[in-house]
Amino acid sequence: MTSRAGERGKPVAGLPSRPPVPYRLKRIFREPTRRQPRFPPNRSLWVTKSALAETPLNAKAEASVPAASDRRHALAAMFRVVRGETERRAAPLTPEDQVVQSMPDASPAKWHRAHTTWFFEQFVLVPHLEDYRVFHPDYAYLFNSYYVSAGPRHARAARGLLTRPGAAEVTAYRRHVDAAVERLLATADEALLERLAPLMEVGFNHEQQHQELMLTDILHAFGQNPIPPAYDPAWAPPRTTASAGFATLAEGIHTVGHAGAGFHYDNETPAHRALVGPVRIARALVTNAEWLDFMADGGYATPTLWLMDGFARASDEGWEAPGHWRKVDGEWRIMTLGGLQPVDPAAPVCHVSYYEADAFARWRGAHLPTEMEWEVAARAGLIDDAFGIVWQWTRSAYAPYPGYRAAPGALGEYNGKFMVNQYVLRGASLATPEGHSRTTYRNFFYPHHRWQFSGLRLASYDD
Ligand SMILES: [Fe+2]
């Protein structure tokens, strides 16, 4: 393994060498973990509704195991869909747009495109494609995000300082890795395809997460521009036709978390039983009109509505409206993917932090739902606009489910090590790729974060 890794470390882009990419392959991909995939075995494709989506990737039952060619084609087809969507989202951006890092939490678009490529190179190609040569030996250092097990990495907050490699070189990197993955899939035998399937599926989902971040991050960058650009001039705010009022969840014991077929992250497991309700949960998302009322009533200036940390953050940063709102000639406007637009009173409020959502709920004499209440209500079809507009803050801390244990190895770093000091958001936003949402999905951010497409719905424990 060591000698092959060294050989793979030869650069093809011609810059001086440094230690090769596969720093600890034996540890990351040791044999026992091949027999026991780190994430629950995949069951079916989940992104598109194509005919390929009906083909299980690594079903265990003998009768349902697809021919190797079916699995091969399904993986290759999904790989092209996911990789193509990233480039489609990047297409409106100039090379200059792709360099900017507007704050430490955001990353340059170019970095997202390269990091998702590194993920396939590091976890799929290097351990499994015998004659693979890494595109560049320094890219593992530049484009590893937080995988300590995968080796040292460039400082997150300094990603925007990387003018080189340029966007065109990142495109070449993507093509190099795309071609190698296609070659790997075309030549792998059935046993290797079975090992590759769960890794590929994590790679697909990982890249989809970065597709959303690419939009939230470029929106934040564009929002710093006094002459705010439009990512998509034809973009319009999502409208809602949600029902008014609250749905009632009677007290009951429900199974929550992911069980059964379909891709899911480890943080959605183990499925377990939880006591939920009685509670009433709003069918609709909170709108801009309601938020304007909160602002007009002094919501941002009333400390008794706020958690202490939240009020301190709001004061320190001068919050008087949601993120991306600007006052122009006395009127509030919102920086959107379509540029600076008037506030649409009917649209759900967006770019609010947990602190703001919590204060708003208190102002209304209500609460944020717990993530269990949200999941049970969503599964029962009791709430509208659960997916596709804004992620919805819950009052649940991001913590492991009972019995959760992060998998060993580098991919075990994906979720588990972040289970402290953050809050869970449920649903999906307008930027979430199609097929990347489900009732058990647990998104998580720090309570002051508000550059995501994040909103809220209310819950009440009053009759
Ligand atoms: Fe990542």
Brief summary of the model shown:
With 463 residues, the protein is of the alpha+beta class. It has helices spanning 2-8, 25-28, 31-35, 68-90, 109-128, 139-143, 167-187, 190-222, 288-296, 308-317, 354-363, 371-379; strands at residues 246-249, 252-256, 272-276, 279-282, 325-328, 331-336, 339-342, 391-397, 423-427, 443-445, 454-455, 459-460. The chain folds into two domains: 23-223, Up-down Bundle (Four Helix Bundle (Hemerythrin (Met), subunit A)), CATH 1.20.120; 246-460, paralog of FGE (formylglycine-generating enzyme) (Alpha-Beta Complex), CATH 3.90.1580.10.
Q: What this model shows, in words?
A:
The chain is of the alpha+beta class. It folds into two domains: 23-223, Four Helix Bundle (Hemerythrin (Met), subunit A); 246-460, paralog of FGE (formylglycine-generating enzyme) (Alpha-Beta Complex), CATH 3.90.1580. It contains twelve helices and twelve strands. Strands 10-9-8-11 form a four-stranded mixed β-sheet. A hairpin with a 2-residue loop joins strand 5 and strand 6 (331-336). Helix 4 runs parallel beside helix 8 (190-222) and helix 5 (109-128) packs parallel to helix 7 (167-187).
